[in-house]
Amino acid sequence: MLKIEHVAKRYGRGRQRKGVLEDINLSIGKGDLVGLVGESGSGKSTLARLIMRLETMDEGEISFSRSGNFYDSCQIVFQNATAALNPTWTVRASLLEPLRLMKGDREGYIKEMLSLVSLSDVHLDRLPSELSGGERQRVNLLRSILVKPELLICDEIVSSLDRLIQKEIVELLKRLNEEMGMAILFISHDLKVVNYLCDRVYVMKDGRIVEDSVKQDGTFVFSHPYAQRLFE
Amino acid sequence: MKSNKIFIFWCALFGLIVLITVFANLFSTYPVNEMNMDKVYMAPGDGHILGTDHLGRDVFTRLLHGGKVTLTVAFGSVLLSLVIGVMYGSVSGYVGGWVDSAMMRLLEALISIPSLIFVLAFQAVMQGGMWGMTFIIGVTGWFTTARIVRSEFIRLKEADYVKMARMFGTPIWRIITGHLLRNSVTPLFVVTIFNLAGAVFIEVSLSFLGIGIPPSIPSWGNMLYNAQNDLLIGAWWIGLFPGLLIFFTVLSINFIGEMLKDSRL
Amino acid sequence: MTVKWIGKRMMLGILVLFILSFLSFFIMHASPGSSATAYYGGNAQMLSAAEKERISRTFALDRPLVVQYGAWLMETVQGNLGMSAKEGRPVSAILAERVTNTLLLVGVSLFFIVTGSILLGMEAGMKPNSLLDRGLSSFSIASSSIPAFWLGILFIYLFSLKLGLLPSSGMQSIGGNDDFFDKVRHLIMPAAVIVLTHVGVYARFLQDSVKMEMRSYYVKTARANGVEEREIRSGVLRNALIPYLNYLGMTIPSFFGGSVIVETLFSWAGLGQLMAKSVMVKDYPLLMGGIMLTGIIVVVSLFVIDVLMFILDPKLRKRELGV
Ligand SMILES: Nc1ncnc2c1ncn2[C@@H]1O[C@H](COP(=O)(O)OP(=O)(O)O)[C@@H](O)[C@H]1O
Ligand SMILES: [Mg+2]
C-alpha cells in the first residue's frame, strides 16, 4: 500500500546543509502493524512528515496505492496532543473539522465514535485545557480516525502518558487494526510497546534504517549490533 | 490580587466615561448648541456646573456630547485599522516567501513615516466631517496591527493543529479565521487598545489645530480650539475640563492596555 | 557584507521617499482645480498663455498619469518644488527658512529626552525596588497620556500668564534682534512639552532592558569576581543601549509628526507649523514640499541611528562584516 524507496532528506543551506534521512526503504501493506524505532533525533518524525506530504524529499520516491484524496486514506496522530488541538476550540469543533464534507448526522457519528476511545458526550463541550493529558491524546487520536483511514501513522503518541493510559491506547490501536483493517505505522522509542503491538519493525539510526525484522514466536530477532543492543 | 483591583478600577473609569458620553442626552443640562449671549464666559457655579464658553454654551453639556463624537471617531477608526491591519498582516504572514518580504519592506517604510503626515495629506484634500476624520485616522493607523498579525501568523501556522487542518482539507479562510486569528486575539486586542488611545490623541490634536472635525460639531478637540485664547482672558474652565477628561480617558485606556500586555507575558 | 547591509537600509530610505512622493503627487491630483493650479496656486490665473503652455509641457499635463508623475518627480528631484499658493514665493525658499527651526526644536528636545531617559532608566534599572524603580512605569504611562498641546496650554497659563517668566509664543520678542538668549527663552516651553511627554516612555524602555541585563549571567559572574561596580554599570549600559537605540529609531519619525502640534501651539516657525497652516489655507505646493522635506529628514535620522547601532552592537557588526 505504501512504498518508500531510496528516500533522502536534507535540511539547511550551503555549508550548514545536513542530511537527516539517507536511503530509506520501507513498505507497509494493507492491515499491517509496523513499528519504527530509533533514538530521539534519528529522523523518525521527519520520515512521518515526508509520508504525510507535509514536506518534500530531496531524493527517492514514496508511492501510495490508494486513489482519491490522499488524506482520506492516510492520517497521522502527532506526539504532542496539546499542540495538535486548537486551544480555543471545543472538542466538538475539533472533531467536526475532518468531517466537513460528510453527509448525514455528523454529531451522531461523533457520539458513536466517542465511546470507542472511552470518552463520552460530556467531553464534547470542553476545551483542550479542561481535559487530562490522556483524554487529550484520545481526542487527538479519535479525530484522525474519524475519516476511517487505511493507514494511520502514530508519532510517539503514548510516550508522554502514564502506563495505564498507554495500555488503553495501545489496546485501542490493536482493535482498530482488527476491526477496521487499519494499517498502523507506530513510531516509538519505547521498545516494550512496539514489541507488544507490532508484527514487523524497522530500526533507525542516524537517518538510516539499519535493520528490519518480522516477529517470530512473539519476539524480534536482529543481527545488527545496534538493533540488538536496543532490544536487549 | 492588588493589580486585579487596579485593573478593575481603570476599566470602570473608562466604562463610566463611555457610558456618560453614550447617554449624553440623559445627563446633559442644556441643548448642546444652545447659545446664550447674556451668559458668556460664566465661571463654574449655579446653573452651569462647569461654566459656559465664549458663546454662552454649557461646557458640561458639550463635554458629554463632545465625548460621544471623539469616542465614536476613535472607536470607528480603530475598527477600520483593525480590519485593514488584519487583512494585510494575514496575507503577508500566511503566504510568506517573497510576497511577505515585499509586503514587510513596504510596511517598514510606512511605519517610518510620521502618521500625522499621512493624516495632514488626506485632510488637505478630503475636508470631510466626522466620518471623514474616522476614515483618515483608520486608514493611517493599521501599520502596527498588520505587523502583529503577521508575526502571530508566522508563529501559529507551524502549529500542529494548523498542519492537521490542512490535511483535513479545511478551507484557507477557515484556517485563517478559526485557527490563526482566533489564537491571535489577545495581542490583537492589546494593540487595538493602544490604537484607541492614539486615535483619541489624533482627533483632539487635529481639531485643536482647526484641521480636524469641522468646528460646528462638538468634540473634545474642538472644545479646546479656543481654549488658548480663553485662557488669556482668564476663562480657565473652558480648557481645563475637556483636557482633564481627555487625559483620564487616555490614561485609563493606556493602563488597561499595559496591564493586559503584562498579564499575557 | 557591510555593502549588503547598507544597501538594505538605503532601500528603506528610498522606499520612504517614494511613498511620500506618491502621497505628494496624490495631493496634487486630488486637490480641486488643474494640476497647474495645484502647482502654481492662485498665481495660475495671472500666468500668460505661453507660460501655461510651458508648464503644461514641463509637467506633461496632457499625458498619462504615470508620465505626469515622472515629469513631476524630475522637477522635484532638481529642487523645483513650485510656488507657494498664498505667499507667491518659491516653496524651496520658504522651506529653507523653516527647516532649521524644526531641527533646532526637535534636536534640543531629543537631546534632553535621550540624556534624561538614560539617566532615569539606568538609575531605576540598577536600583530595584527604589522609589524611582517603582514609580517610573506609572510616570511613563501618565506622562504619555497627556495631550502635548494641552500641557502646553497649561504651561502658557502658568509660566507666561501667571508668573510672567517665559514668552507664550513665537521665536523672538517683538522688536528683538536675533538675540541668542531671547531665542532660548522662546524655545524652553515648546521643548519642555515635548521632553516631558516623551522622556518617561524612553526611560521605562531603558529600565526594562537594564533590568534584563542585570539578571544576565555575565553580570552575576562579574559581581562574583569582584569586578568594580563602575565597570559593570558601563557594560550594562552599553548592552542595554542597543535595544534602546532600536526603539528610538522606530519612534523617531513620530517626533516630526508631533512637532506639528507643538510648533503650531507655540507659533514656532518650523516645518510642522508650516504644514498645518498650509492644510488650513489649502496651500498644496507648500504642503507637498513640507512632506518631502520631512521625509528626507526622517530618512537621514534613521540612517544616523543605524550607524550608531552598528558601532555599538558587536553582534551586528560581526554578522554583517563576517569577522
Ligand atoms: N525543519 C528542520 N530544519 C532543520 N533540521 C531539522 C528540521 N526538522 C528536524 N531536523 C533535524 O533532523 C533530525 C531528526 O529529527 P526528527 O525527525 O524530529 O527525529 P526523531 O523524530 O527521530 O526524534 C534532528 O537532528 C533535527 O534536528
Ligand atoms: Mg520525533
Automatic annotation (TrEMBL), chain B:
Domain of life assignment: Bacteria
Keyword Membrane: yes
PROSITE patterns referenced in this protein's UniProt entry, alphabetically: ABC_TM1
Membrane-topology descriptor: Multi-pass membrane protein
Coiled coil spans: none
Subcellular location: Cell membrane
Predominant place of localization: membrane
Keywords tagged on the record: Cell membrane, Membrane, Transmembrane, Transmembrane helix, Transport
Residue ranges of the TM segments: 7-27, 69-94, 106-125, 131-149, 188-213, 233-256
Keyword presence, Transmembrane helix: yes
Family: Belongs to the binding-protein-dependent transport system permease family.
PANTHER family: D,D-DIPEPTIDE TRANSPORT SYSTEM PERMEASE PROTEIN DDPC-RELATED, OLIGOPEPTIDE TRANSPORT SYSTEM PERMEASE PROTEIN APPC
Protein name: ABC transporter permease
Species: Sporosarcina quadrami
Automatic annotation (TrEMBL), chain C:
InterPro entries: BPD_transp_1_N, MetI-like, MetI-like_sf
Alphabetical list of CDD domains matching this protein: TM_PBP2
Recorded topology in the membrane: Multi-pass membrane protein
Location in or out of the cell: Cell membrane
Main location: membrane
Domain ABC transmembrane type-1: 99-309
Keyword terms: Cell membrane, Membrane, Transmembrane, Transmembrane helix, Transport
Residue spans crossing the bilayer: 103-124, 136-159, 187-206, 244-266, 286-312
Highest taxon listed in the record's lineage: Bacteria
Pfam families recorded: BPD_transp_1, BPD_transp_1_N
Family: Belongs to the binding-protein-dependent transport system permease family.
Protein's recorded name: ABC transporter permease
Source organism per UniProt: Sporosarcina quadrami
